[in-house]
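__Record contents__

***
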Amino acid sequence: MKKVIFFVLVAVFTTSSYSQYRWEVSAGATFSDLSLDNVETSRGTGFFINAGYGYVMGVRAKTSIVFSLDLLQRNSEIENLGDVKILQAGITPKFRYLFGRGKDRFRAFINVGPSFRVNANVDIADLEVDSDDYENVVIGGVYGAGFSQMIGEMFDVMVEVGAMNDFVDNFNEEFIPGGSKFFDFYARVGVRFRIYDARR
């Protein structure tokens, strides 16, 4: 029994010795296209604000789980109707893989995860759409790649590009028949602040 406890303690110590906690804030542009079955649409530009908490773990701090709060504006133009603007807020838990070693000042990363967002406001041709005409919760996915560069013992600068897509429609079938899913590209810049184990 004592040997089991010893090995468990060693495993916990080994894992925690490579862990660090980070807050991160980033913002940037989104380039969104609303996919409709029978109507042509074109891409529009919006914005993306992200605030997250990350837990870095594993040997050489290569894997990370990041929980992010998102504020996202998605814009697209519908032919013969006008601009559609949707403001969304939600949460995105992401799995992140970091390349290099834990003590490197420059590190590239990739991340992937689901997104759960609420449609807070929907406008079409500058007219607000009734909440009964669109879905309240939209589930999608986020796929990104980027890098971070240390600028001190506690801060990193982050640059990230990626794509987002919806798994469910944004509008109800009675309002817009067929598919009404967004596909976005994004680019954003931000900072990360380490609050534990700042050497890594």
